[in-house]
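Hi there, hope your week has been kind to you so far. For a while now I've been wondering how a particular protein folds. I'm sending you its amino acid sequence along with the backbone structure tokens. Could you read through the record and tell me how the tokens relate to the sequence? Take your time with it, there's no hurry, and the full record follows here.
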Amino acid sequence: MTTRRAFFRQLCISAAALPVFPRAMGAFKAVSVDSIVSTEPWWKTGIIYQIYPRSFQDSNGDGLGDFPGMTSRLHHLRSLGVDAVWVTACFDSPNADNGYDVRDYRRISADFGTMGDFDRFMAEAKKQDIRVILDMVFNHSSDEHEWFRQSRSSRDNPYRDYYFWREPVNGGPPTNWPCAYGGSAWEFDKTTGQYYLHHYAIKQPDLNWENPKVRHELYAVLNFWAAKGVSGFRFDCAGEISKPLPFRDMTLAELKDNVIDYRTTGARLDEYFKEMRAATSAYPDLYFVGEGWGMPRDRIVRAVDDRNKELNSAFRFDFMLQNIRDGWRNLPWSLQRLKDFNKENQFDDDPHVWPIVFIEDHDFSRSVSRFGSSRPEYKDRSAKLLATMLLSLRGTPLIYQGEEIGMSNFPFTSVSQYNDIGVYNLWKDLVETGKVPAAEYLANNAITSRDNSRTPMQWDASSQAGFTTNSKPWLAVNPNYLQVNVESEAKERGSVLSFYRDLIRIRKSKPTLILGSYHDISGDHPQLYAYQRSGSSGTLVVLLNFSDEPTEFRLPISFKPKAVVINNVPQGKATLSASVPLLPWQSLILE
């Protein structure tokens, strides 16, 4: 499996028929659930939708998405049935790393609008009964942040220890730590003759959480946005805010395989999470979800245990990385590894741990292109199958923008079509040096590149998919937008979008799909994934045929199916018997 360090190092090494429900746009009304569900925190019973701001909706014709554009599309999210929206990095930034280098934590990026635009977005979200979650990049800031500008100005500046500064060792960096983007994690600064630490880009110096002043500044940022009505925060690089101190050289084994693992071993991580939670106690319903890349499962368990009052959930990437090698090579993925990951990520053995479930986000290519069928006739069906899995597992589901209409990978054929600087760096390092043939690199990267998930949202069949009036958006629109778009799918009963809407309503009407226990009943079936959800409201069985061939599955003796809850092949009847035949890429939920 590709580690995060290897991923980024290679990335940037050079530098039955469906039930009918009302679906009027903007008029979604959630189906009520029983009293057991209604007493749970909102983030346990809700569904989160992730927006990548620059690709969602442009309102002013500059080719970039913005807050007014997002505001204009909130009715789509309401009609879909989501309960909260996570807005990816949107603060003032010089954009050395697409907003993950923050220059001012209390200002909205000018690319996306003004604070007034944000306030109007919040007001409309509240009207639509949608909560808002913001991205907090607290492991590092931009080198253009005023704290760092002050910090690098002199050794005795009051902001000096807001960051990690160290003397040279033998005329070089203080330790042998590598940067995730290639080179050393230490950068020499001539102004004061010392090195500063940056786990990521040179323009992203790491903040010194050992300094209580830094922590209090960051907690004040959280309270600032909570006071504006924000309901939660996603914490970037959550496991790295506590550094393993004192600094030392990494061993050869750590350098080879475990850089990110080592960097998430800081002794004070739980202390910081607890302190952060306590500092925002005036807003007890805030949802705290961490990016858990590099954090081992046991550490995640400790951080999200509801008795510890730290995080509420954490994103785990073990499966997402299993079919990517060296940050660009595409490898066959394994259904068994998916089953194994889901089994341990359901945390069914620990009622104090609540997972988050996702199969797409802004850092990976499109799920239907990665895990669905390569045969055109089964593309939509496999997208619906993935939706069935996503929305029937234990945990809070995350839907990434465009996933609900089955957006797929862009047909990249040339390096010039990409926006991601990592792609260009890899081309320079691998192709221009003759290490890898251009055709091999392009073929693999077209499947694995994160630019696949960042192409503009496909709203309709008009020019530029209704995303912008600009003839050249920041990243090209996928040419399949004429067939795959919100407007056309909203009118089609059998579309991917219609299936998502129906499935979300079903999930909200059946407490077992939200809070029930999880038990894998697949056995050693090579192409079928089956599991059982059980709770006080009954038992449901989910059947997923992950293949281009028909198959059959024998249900457990104890389960007697009485009805089909949902079927992603409406024209294909589901047999309510002990042995259930399934068509290629068919998914069923039985009760």
